[in-house]
Write a structure and sequence with these properties.
The chain is an all-alpha fold and 81 residues long. The protein has a domain of 42 residues. The chain is built from 2 helices and no strands. Helix 1 packs antiparallel against helix 2. About 17% of the residues have low confidence.
Length: 81
């Protein structure tokens, strides 16, 4: 088993298709990424992001929380400014 930090599994049910309307009040104008596209993006970026965060903050638990928060913010960001 590797000592390399591994991202925690996340459960995102807010990844939406580009053509879908958002009618949930807590989701405003998120990026509306479809689930397979987000999964690929996550698989390619979560490991490097987590490794960077562990080095930057020096605390694995905090780094995992920051990593998860980063993807939550990405999914709910307003793409139009």
């Amino acid at each position: 088993m590797s000592d390399e930090p591994q991202p925690r599994a996340m459960n995102f049910e807010i990844a939406l298709s580009v053509s879908e309307e958002v009618d949930e009040p807590h989701v405003k104008s998120g990026l509306r990424v479809d689930e397979p596209a987000f999964q690929l993006f996550y698989e390619q970026t979560a490991g490097p992001l987590l490794r960077y965060l562990v080095r930057a903050c020096g605390e694995r638990g905090l780094a995992e929380d920051l990593c998860q928060e980063s993807y939550c913010r990405f999914l709910t960001a307003d793409a139009h400014g």
